[in-house]
Design a protein that fits this description.
6-stranded antiparallel sheet
């Protein structure tokens, strides 16, 4: 067991090293912006005389004195500006001692201007990720390593394939569907293995995605949603991507959001049925299906609520505004952003409800060995016919 764990851990380290080397050597910076360096800096002094504040919103600019911590001019103290236009969701008010990211604009080999970008949060996020990895490895062992591999593969595929192909003008819905089929196959078979359990979970997941896609296509037009409720969609369009089909990108986001829950339920049911079969080999296919149904009912009972809580968490402040303003129920339900989130929740929930019985039925046929038995029976019957014909021919 420890040898297997060590080999998988070595594979994980190699893959992480390859990814880090790729992004380090290929150069993630845009060659068009070769005259700009983004580096860490420490804030020494702050001048807020040009800042006008109202609550949490700030307009104006901060004059900062910072020390560059890396890059071509590491160790130098320079002046920087932090522009504020009242967008508190993306802007920061810096104070002495903050570690921030600054954009150093170069001109003829020297520093022309320094602009504050954001707080440096990377170390804390990496620490949090490290805790997640450690907890996963301590509890799940080899399966935890496989889960991490699938996690990294998913991030790479979404970033390097899905996002880039949609930006390049490929059909968003088709691209997302094919990407999810690929991701489902890699994740499920990597974690579960190439066996009956993996095959059951994969087929169940694909069926759930098909149901989600069908419901999305049938109802999104009726609800009248064109996708403009998505975060940063206006910034994307006005960045020059006028040709993008925002409606289909919205549909793709719904399917992408529901795919993880569909995969989770399919794997839960397939793993449970496989465990039942392992503990009770003589169980019939129908009894195994009934066990899958029972597991599915309990899983769905919490998973649908999980989707609701996940989407509600992203719009908690909007719900608070509704409490403050007290609009009518009709107005709330028909508000574009609310209708979009209701659509996400209901479409995902329909996919979850249907993926459970489908996975249970598929598992009853695959995990019980029904197909294998049928093939053996057909094969043995064919062999008996050949032997019988051979005996008849011998007598003749």
């Amino acid at each position: 067991m420890y040898k297997k764990l060590g080999s998988h851990l070595l594979l994980l380290v190699v893959i992480v090293s390859v990814i880090v080397a790729y992004y380090s050597w290929s150069g993630v910076s845009d060659p068009m912006n070769a005259e700009v360096e983004e580096v860490r800096a420490e804030v020494l002094l702050v001048d807020n005389s040009e800042v006008r504040s109202s609550g949490l919103s700030h307009i104006g600019y901060q004059e900062l004195e910072v020390t560059l911590l890396e890059g071509s001019f590491a160790g130098e103290s320079v002046s920087a500006t932090n522009s504020l236009v009242g967008q508190s969701d993306i802007e920061n008010i810096f104070k002495p001692g903050d570690e921030i990211i600054v954009a150093v604009i170069l001109e003829e080999g020297g520093i022309a201007h320094v602009k504050a970008v954001d707080l440096y949060r990377q170390d804390a996020l990496l620490l949090l990720f490290g805790i997640f990895v450690l907890a996963l490895l301590l509890y799940a062992g080899v399966v935890g390593i496989k889960a991490l591999l699938s996690f990294m593969f998913t991030v790479l595929i979404i970033w390097e394939v899905l996002v880039q192909r949609i930006l390049a003008g490929y059909d968003p819905l088709m691209t997302t569907t094919l990407t999810l089929v690929l991701l489902s196959a890699v994740i499920i078979f990597l974690v579960a293995g190439l066996n009956r359990r993996g095959a059951t979970a994969f087929i169940g997941t694909i069926c759930g995605l098909c149901v989600t896609l069908l419901v999305t296509l049938l109802f999104c037009n009726r609800v009248g949603l064109v996708g403009m409720t998505q975060p940063y969609v206006n910034a994307l369009v006005f960045s020059g991507y006028y040709q993008l089909d925002i409606r289909e990108i919205f549909y793709s986001a719904i399917i992408l959001g529901a795919s993880g829950a569909c995969m989770d339920i399919a794997m839960d049911i397939a793993a449970s049925m496989d465990e039942v079969k392992l503990k009770k080999p003589e169980i019939t296919a129908w009894e195994l299906v009934q066990s899958g149904f029972n597991v599915g009912r309990h899983v769905i009972g919490t998973m649908a609520t999980t989707l609701l809580l996940a989407y509600s968490g992203g719009y908690l402040t909007l719900l608070m505004i509704f409490q403050v303003k007290e609009p009518s129920i009709m107005r709330m339900l028909n508000l574009k952003i609310v209708a979009a989130e209701i659509m996400r929740t209901l479409v995902g929930s329909i996919g979850l409800v249907l993926v459970a019985p489908i996975t249970a039925l598929v598992g009853g046929l695959i995990i019980s060995g029904y197909f294998t038995k049928r093939v053996r029976l057909l094969s043995s019957g064919r062999q008996e016919r050949i032997a019988s014909e051979s005996r008849v021919n011998h007598k003749i």
